[in-house]
Amino acid sequence: MDTSSVEVFGGDGRVTISSLLFPGPDDQGMAFYADGERPASSP
């Protein structure tokens, strides 16, 4: 399992953001938010 990469897909898969994260040893979580006209949702 890759524990350092994050991929975000938007627009029904038309847009992708990929990044690598290197959290500190005490980090235990992650938070996401959306800023725009449409609220973030999941199917």
UniProtKB/TrEMBL annotation:
Residues 1-37 form the Glycosyl hydrolase family 32 C-terminal domain. This is GH32 C-terminal domain-containing protein. It comes from the Bacteria. It comes from Streptomyces sanglieri.
